[in-house]
Amino acid sequence: MSVTNESKRQALKARFARKEIVTAPGIFDMISAKMADSMGFDCLYMTGFGTVASYLGLPDAGLATYTDMVNRVAAFCGGTKTPMICDGDTGYGGLLNVAHTVHGYEQAGAAGIQLEDQEFPKKCGHTPGRRVIALEDMVRKIKVAVESRSDRNFQIVARTDARTSLGLDEALRRADAYAKAGADVLFVESPESVEELAKIGSTFDMPLLVNVVEGGRTPQLAPDELQKLGFSLAIYPASGFLTVAKALKDVYGEILARKGTEGAASGMYPFSEMCELMGFPEVWAFDRAHAD
């Protein structure tokens, strides 16, 4: 039975209403998307860093266009059954661009979109040099995003990057304004202590997202601890591509040094299971059904 985009969005909104934290792995290409989709997560997160890196081989620094990203949204969401929140950067321009982006991401199958208050060109979270636009400008973007969605279950995730450059109080002030503008989920990026996480959690009574980045600015806490602090969604955007990059470096180094992979074979995902993950059994069944 196929899963519709509408049912994915309904499921995600209902899941947030349960007040139990959702853990969402970062997906960045079709292999990671299909792997995560097969494992029973309630939500997946399309990471901007990983998607731009894998698709374009570029840093997540405002270089990817709307066309680049909506292409990936359509591929990822079309090939999976799990609700997915997709990184929409700054909305790729002004208010008209934001409306176009929300419509495009929704049509492409996303269950939600993350929009941030950085200046263009944006920079990846947990990296230096991030600057934010005026609060009033981002409020207008959130209002336009809410007005532009066709499905009220499509989640608008409002992210502020103000903590790093302007402090936590300003970040909280902005998050409050974005909530009043109609955001469904608030995302205060890069809090730098458990005390800051607790303050964010105690300030808002609505779904809150926390960004868990290995090696980033925010303390690494277990999901149950984050739930106690008031968070509804913990995303792990970098975990997958950092693990894959390490595995690739190791096996390619083995090939270079030893001219083969005998020493690395035990650490590889089985070829037969990869064939199954990618859907080859259906291809083989089709071939048998239509054999001469």
TrEMBL record:
InterPro entries: ICL/PEPM, Pyrv/PenolPyrv_kinase-like_dom, Pyrv_kinase-like_dom_sf. It comes from the Bacteria. The keyword Protein biosynthesis does not apply. One of its GO terms (molecular function) is oxo-acid-lyase activity. The keyword Heme does not apply. Keywords: Plasmid. This is Putative carboxyvinyl-carboxyphosphonate phosphorylmutase. It comes from Caballeronia insecticola.
